[in-house]
């Protein structure tokens, strides 16, 4: 517990160190404002004592007393002017909260983006979004705590310290009475702290759940509508909301109870002081000025003393948020080899005895797959739905980690390669193409380091998109995705194909392009690819007879295994392959 608290404090310190000037300024202004606040009752006491002195002594001494009063009035003016400057600090505090929020979000977004596919399989996207948004902003979440929370405590603690200092100066014995509630409050805090941490963690998890659900229901809105299962989905959501409501209620209950306990402790102390102070004043053991100052200091102590445990309460909350950020950050990133091998071409890519099953699935998506693709070769992968074609393409792209066997490029295991030099050589078109909000051109050039007009035209030409782009309202500057023109699934995939070609890859992986291109266009794509680069290695998942005939080799998969591989014509003697072709290509002009 202690060790991890130290880690969290170190985390806060690291964030603070990014804005040292702001933090220093805040410390200075906060201490100054506490000092100003504590000075007023002290000056009042001096004034009252001077007045009392003037009343009690004869007319002769009144001139001296008036001089004293003048001096005190000047002091009041000076302190008031200082207060004006130090009064700026709450504004600076609010500003600093926003600065930290921005800083943390930028930093952790970049870190999340550096993770690989494992991370995104482990964390739901709604959860990641919550950790980078709701966890950070507003009272009393992390960024509030980092500045306002801590500096409110600095303000309170310094006020308490200055108050106690002034009180000790005036009357030590009476001061001791006011320290009585402190140990009791600290005790209450220590007893309840684990409860606090737990309650807030549950609450934040409930919020994450809701955001995940929202994300799912909006991205799946079409499906939900099509199946008319809105009521069912609304029920799911209600349940998540109920959970959030009940965890929030638990948070409020806990806060209320703690507030009440602290307030009662304080009230008892206040009564004790008024009683003791009153008795001392009546006996003439303290002056009216002293009693007045004490009464004021007591009023000033109440809120800061209540506020300090609040720091620990909101600290516990912030610690939950820090832990949630660090949990993402600590998730293992891509494995980096000790001596990464840089490559500049793909001579061969080979799957060696490759096996893989998706987490939580018994059956293997790939089983003992041996497969090789050489520079300049065009290989077609075919097989029934669920036979592992997509998984094979993902494995070759390095997007799944094999359970057994490995993928080698030019004889070097994928894991040993320098990731960026390898990535630069691969163009991968997933089965479900994804477009980002932006123009067509931005989408196509997403993966290109040095985009130019020539490459763009070449890519959209090869992907058989040129005519469609010309027909769009703003041509290649047409916005697509959110708040843009919506494209059909086939068009989206062709944009994805253009995106892959635009980087002139050495290895092109095309997953299931049958739906996006008709037979003639698929043929045109293939011959354009030849013209662009004769040495490009191409793996395509396609069920077009023309592509199968054209391919240098066909690999036939069934239930994760390679059942046959070779030239299409030669494979026709294989019963399962011939059966598959007869079954699936019926009516396609075969
Ligand atoms: P294909 O592309 O040939 O249709 P896939 O490679 O997509 O086949 O799937 C192979 C097997 O792996 C199937 O049994 C499928 O249900 C399973 N599978 C595919 N993707 C996932 C996933 N993300 N999580 C769990 N199982 C999956
Ligand atoms: Mg597939």
> Measured on Cα atoms, how large is the radius of gyration?
36 Å
* The CATH fourth-level homologous superfamily of the largest domain: ABC transporter type 1, transmembrane domain
What does the average pLDDT come to? Answer: 85
Q: How much of the residues is beta strand, in percent?
A: 5-15%
Q: Work out the count of structural domains.
A: 2
CATH architecture of the largest domain: Up-down Bundle
- Side-by-side strand order of the widest sheet: 6-9-10-3-11-12
Into which percent range does the helicity of residues fall?
55-70%
Structural class comes to alpha/beta
The CATH topology of the largest domain, please? Answer: ABC transporter transmembrane region fold
What's the end-to-end separation, in Å? 70 Å
Please state the oligomeric state of the protein chains shown. Answer: single chain
Question: Any idea of the CATH class of the largest domain?
Answer: Mainly Alpha
Poorly predicted runs of 5 or more residues: none
| Largest sheet properties | 6 strands, mixed
Task: Indicate the overall shape.
Answer: elongated
Task: Provide an overview of this structure.
The protein is of the alpha/beta class. Helices cover 64% and strands 10% of the residues. The chain is built from 22 helices and 12 strands. Strand 9, helix 19 (519-532) and strand 10 (537-541) form a beta-alpha-beta unit. Helix 2 (20-56) packs antiparallel against helix 3 (62-86) and helix 11 packs antiparallel against helix 12 (288-330). The protein is elongated. The protein starts with a helix and ends in a 6-residue tail after the last helix. The structure holds adenosine-5'-diphosphate (ADP) and magnesium ion (MG). Adenosine-5'-diphosphate binds at residues 358, 361, 365, 383, 385-391.
């Amino acid at each position: 517990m202690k060790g991890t608290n130290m880690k969290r404090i170190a985390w806060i310190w690291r964030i603070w160190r990014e804005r040292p000037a702001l933090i220093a300024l805040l410390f200075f202004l906060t201490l100054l404002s506490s000092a100003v606040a504590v000075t007023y009752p002290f000056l009042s006491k001096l004034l009252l004592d001077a007045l009392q002195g003037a009343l009690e002594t004869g007319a002769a001494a009144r001139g001296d007393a008036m001089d004293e009063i003048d001096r005190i009035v000047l002091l009041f003016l000076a302190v008031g002017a200082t207060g004006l400057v130090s009064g700026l600090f709450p504004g600076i505090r609010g500003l600093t909260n926003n600065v930290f929020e921005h800083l943390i979000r930028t930093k952790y977004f970049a870190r999340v983006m550096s993770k690989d596919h494992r991370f995104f399989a482990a964390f739901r996207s709604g959860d990641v979004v919550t950790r980078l948004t709701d966890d950070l902003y507003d009272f009393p979440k992390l960024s509030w705590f980092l500045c306002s929370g801590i500096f409110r405590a600095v303000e309170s603690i310094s006020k308490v310290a200055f108050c106690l200092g002034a009180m000790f100066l005036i009357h030590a014995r009476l001061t001791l009475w006011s320290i009585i509630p402190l140990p009791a409050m600290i005790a209450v805090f220590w007893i309840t702290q684990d409860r606090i941490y737990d309650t807030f963690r549950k609450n934040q998890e409930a919020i994450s759940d809701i955001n995940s659900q929202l994300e799912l229901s909006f991205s799946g809105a079409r499906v939900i509508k099509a199946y008319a299962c809105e009521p069912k989905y609304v029920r799911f959501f209600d349940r998540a909301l109920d959970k959030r409501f009940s965890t929030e209620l638990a948070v409020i209950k806990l806060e209320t109870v703690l507030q009440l306990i602290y307030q009662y402790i304080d009230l008892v102390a206040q009564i004790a002081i008024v009683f003791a102070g009153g008795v001392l004043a009546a006996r003439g053991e303290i002056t009216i000025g002293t009693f007045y100052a004490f009464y004021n200091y007591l009023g000033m102590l109440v809120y800061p003393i209540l506020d300090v445990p609040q720091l620990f309460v909101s600290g516990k909350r912030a610690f939950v948020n820090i832990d949630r950020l660090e949990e993402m950050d600590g998730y293992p990133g891509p494995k980096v080899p000790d001596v990464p091998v840089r490559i500049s071409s793909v001579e061969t890519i080979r799957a060696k005895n490759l096996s893989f099953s998706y987490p939580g699935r018994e059956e293997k998506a790939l089983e003992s797959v041996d497969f090789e693709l050489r520079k300049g070769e065009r290989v077609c992968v075919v097989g029934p739905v669920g036979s592992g074609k997509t998984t094979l393409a993902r494995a070759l792209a390095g997007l799944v980690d094999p359970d057994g066997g490995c993928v080698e490029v030019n004889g070097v295991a994928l894991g040993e390669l320098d990731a960026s030099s390898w990535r630069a050589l691969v163009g991968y078109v997933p089965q479900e193409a994804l477009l980002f909000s932006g123009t067509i051109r931005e989408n196509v050039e997403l993966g290109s380091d040095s985009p130019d007009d020539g490459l763009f035209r070449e890519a959209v030409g090869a992907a058989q998109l040129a005519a469609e782009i010309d027909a769009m309202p703003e041509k290649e500057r047409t916005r697509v995705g959110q708040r843009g023109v919506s494209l059909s699934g086939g068009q989206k995939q062709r944009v994805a194909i253009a995106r892959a070609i635009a980087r002139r890859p050495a290895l092109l992986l095309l997953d299931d392009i049958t739906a996006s291109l008709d037979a003639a266009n698929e043929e045109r794509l293939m011959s354009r690819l030849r013209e662009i680069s004769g040495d490009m290695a191409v793996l395509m998942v396609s069920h077009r007879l023309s592509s199968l005939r054209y391919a240098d080799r066909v690999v036939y998969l069934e239930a994760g295994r390679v059942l046959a591989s070779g030239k299409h014509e030669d494979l026709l003697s294989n019963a399962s392959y011939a059966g598959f072709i007869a079954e699936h290509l019926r009516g396609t002009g075969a």
